[in-house]
Each structure stands twice: as C-alpha cells, then as structure tokens.
Amino acid sequence: MYDRGRRGFLAMGTTAVATLAGCSGILGGGDENEQRGTPRSSFTLQTLDVGGSTGSEIRVQPPGEVALIDFFASWYEPCKPQMAELRTVRENNPDLHMLSITWETERRPVRTFWERYDGTWPVAMDPQMKAGTKYNVEGLPTVLVVDAEGQTAWRHTGLTKAETIEANLATARQ
Length: 174
Known about the structure:
Layout: H1 4-11, H2 13-24, E1 44-46, E2 49-50, E3 53-54, E4 57-59, E5 67-72, H3 79-92, E6 97-102, H4 107-116, E7 123-125, H5 130-134, E8 142-146, E9 152-157, H6 162-173
C-alpha cells in the first residue's frame, strides 16, 4: 500500500518517467555539467528534527553563499547509495550550506531513511514541491550546486560521485 506522498509523486507521469530515465541513463540520463544560469530568489522550508537537521526553518539557498541542494525520495532505491556520496561531501565541506529536500508527506519514512543512511545535514519536506518547481527538478535524485549569486551553476540527475560534486562546488566558489 502506498502512502499519499508516493501516490502524489507517481501520479505525475512525466516526472516519474523522468526520474527513471535520469537514474538509468535512458533518454540522455544524467545531465552532467548542464548549466542553468537562471537566478533564484531564496525562500525557506521547515526541516525535520533528525541527524544533523534541527527541525527549524532554513533558507534553501542563502544569499551570498554557495549551496548544495539535493532532491530525493526515501522510497526510491537510487537515492539510498547517493547518501554515502553526499555524506562524504559534508565531511569534506563542513561549512557548506547543504540541504536535502523530499516531496513526501509522511515524516516517519523520511526520518527512518535519514537515520538509516546517516544523514548529517538538514533535511526538509516540501510536499507542495515549491523548491522542485523553482529549480526545475524533473527526476530523482537531483543534485544542484547554486552559486553565491543564486544561479544554478551545476545540476545532475541520477547518481553522482562525491568527487564530481566537489569539483563543481570548487568551480562555483571561484
């Protein structure tokens, strides 16, 4: 039986197809090094109170800071191994503004996922998909590097390695 968050997400047929295509390499797969220069205004989301996440409101991308934004789903298999790569990025960049966002509506599965996969940075729930819409997220997992001016400097849909993320963070910091 699916929870409301899964049904809502899967009901968006094109997003579900894009999700599968992004992680499997179908239809062009991971959009490595795709540049998206559209400026984004900062807004806030509520985080969960779990491993590295305080349960308070957080800016998705604070003005003047480089940010790493990760879109994931706790029930989606490719998002599980991505956590180890993101944890490595966090360990190597403890001062980086980093946020993972899910569109799920149920807190318990997200909390369980975060604990099981050792999330050590803020995680927010965004069931209205406000952030996903603002950043044109079409598949999961999607990782964005946003530069200090609020522009998406790099995005990748599908699994990606810590080294690749860190190289793109370094470019965005220049």
